Amino acid sequence: PIDSVFGIAQVAYRKILSKDHKTYHNNEYAVLWEDGKLHYLNDLIPRDSSWDLICAEDINDAGQIVGWGLFRGEERGFVMTPMEVD
């Protein structure tokens, strides 16, 4: 269950970035609120990517998301660019 969600950024087409804090695990997760649904950004990348996305900081009108997380255990910044799906 989600204990709290903190909003960080919003763009014209109503996508909202935030981080979800689950206190029973003491973890934070980068999330995207879109069309009334919460999406964990870690679920949108390959499981074998070695990334653990912790916080999404901003999103632009092209849908690119910037934030930070852990890559192979080390803190790093990231940029996610949406892919078109046929």
Structural commentary:
The chain contains no helices and seven strands. The protein is mainly beta. The protein has one domain (4-80). Strands 1-2-3-4 form a four-stranded antiparallel β-sheet, with no helix packed on it. A three-stranded antiparallel β-sheet has the order 5-6-7, with no helix packed on it. The radius of gyration is 13 Å and the shape is globular. The model is unreliable at 10-14 and 21-25 (pLDDT under 50).
Overall tally of structural domains: 1
| Global morphology | globular
Main beta sheet: 4 strands, antiparallel
How many β strands by DSSP? 7
Q: What topology, given as strand order, has the largest sheet?
A: 1-2-3-4
Model regions low in confidence, pLDDT < 50 over at least 5 residues: 10-14, 21-25
Considering DSSP H and I runs of 4 or more, what fraction of the residues is helical?
under 10%
Structural class: mainly beta
Mean pLDDT reading: 75
Question: Order of SSEs, N→C?
Answer: EEEEEEE
Distance between the termini: 33 Å
Structure annotation, total helices? 0
Radius of gyration, Cα only, in angstroms? 13 Å
Q: Could you tell me the strand content as a percent range? A: over 45%
